[in-house]
Amino acid sequence: MLESGKRYFGIVTSGQFIYSQKGIPAYQVFIDCPDEMISTSYTIWMSPNSDQKRLEKDFATIGLSLAQVSDAKKYTEEQLNEIIAHKEIVFGVKENEFKGKTTLQVKWIERKGAIPTKPPREAAAEFFGGKSAAKMDDDEPPF
C-alpha cells in the first residue's frame, strides 16, 4: 500500500485527455507501481494559471513535448500512448483532503534517475564550488 511522503518507482501505462467538473482540461497519466502491486494516476492540469515550465517538465517526464501535445491533427491519443508507454518514472504521494475525506494522491513525477542520490549537504557544497566530504581512514581521527 502506498504511504504519504514516500517516493515510488512506476511505469507509465497510458494517458488520456480529460476535463475537470469545471471544464479545465488535463492529461491523466496512468502508472503501475510494481513494487507495491498497485496502479495509480497523476493528472497534469492545463488551467490558465498553470505554470508553463511545470507543464513542460511533467510532459517531458513521460516522454512528450508540448509540440506533440498541442498538435491534435498530427498526434492522436493512441499515438501519444505509444510514445509514453513503458516510461520509467519516480513519483511522490501525499495525503489530500477534500470535503472532509482524506485520500492519497500522486503529487509529483520525475524521470527515473532524476532524484539526487548524494546527501543534500554535499550537493550544496558542490553548487557553491566547495568540496564534498573527504573520505577518512578508519584509523585517522576526524580532527
Question: What's this model, at a glance?
Answer:
The protein is α+β, with helices and mostly antiparallel strands and 143 residues long.
In helices, the fraction of residues equals 10-25%
| Main sheet specs | 5 strands, antiparallel
CATH class: Mainly Beta
Number of domains: 1
Q: What are the secondary-structure elements, in order, as H or E? A: EEEHHHEEH
Supply database-style keywords:
5 strands, alpha+beta, OB fold (Dihydrolipoamide Acetyltransferase, E2P), single chain, 143 residues, five-stranded antiparallel β-sheet
Describe how the helices and strands are arranged.
Layout lengths: L6 E13 L5 E9 L4 E8 L6 H10 L4 H5 L6 H8 L3 E11 L2 E11 L8 H8 L16
Antiparallel strand pairs: 1-2, 1-4, 2-3, 4-5
Explain what you see.
The model has no long low-confidence stretch (mean pLDDT 86). By secondary structure, this protein is an alpha+beta fold. The chain is built from four helices and five strands, in the order βββαααββα. The N and C termini lie far apart (45 Å). It has one domain (7-122): OB fold (Dihydrolipoamide Acetyltransferase, E2P) (Beta Barrel), CATH 2.40.50. Strands 3-2-1-4-5 form a five-stranded antiparallel sheet.
